[in-house]
Design brief:
The two termini are 14 Å apart. The protein is 34% helix and 30% strand. Strand 2 and strand 3 form a beta hairpin. The protein has a four-stranded antiparallel beta sheet, covered by helices on one side. The chain has 89 residues and is α+β, with helices and mostly antiparallel strands. It is built from three helices and four strands. The model has no long low-confidence stretch (mean pLDDT 93). It has a single domain, classed as Ribonuclease P, Pop5 subunit (Alpha-Beta Plaits). This is Ribonucleases P/MRP subunit Pop8-like domain-containing protein. It comes from Boletus edulis BED1. Keywords: tRNA processing. One of its GO terms (biological process) is tRNA processing. InterPro entries: Pop8-like_dom (IPR049128), Rnp2-like_sf (IPR038085).
């Protein structure tokens, strides 16, 4: 499953984006879900958008954590999600 994210403030480092999502998962669902597999496939040159790949079973949980993140230094918001990567463009 693929999720296209808007990132604020801009961040071109995929590790920081993944860490921010994992922190949001830990805050909302606990440490067990903080280790959910998240693969950052793309970060645009300006660092304002990224695409992540996640397990389809975890997608709704990850989207909920992104929306509910309150103390993250990097804020992400879902732009679009799909099980078909080319449809995100």
């Amino acid at each position: 499953h693929y999720i296209r994210l808007s990132v604020q403030p801009r961040c071109a480092d995929p590790l920081l984006i993944r860490k921010s999502i994992q922190d949001a998962l830990a805050d909302m669902f606990g440490l067990t879900f903080a280790s959910t597999y998240i693969d950052v496939l793309f970060v645009n040159e300006r660092g304002s958008e990224s695409v992540v790949r996640v397990n389809p079973g975890d997608a709704s949980r990850i989207l909920a954590a992104i929306v509910g993140a309150s103390r993250a230094s990097i804020r992400c918001s879902a732009v679009k999600e799909s099980s078909f990567l080319p449809s995100l463009v």
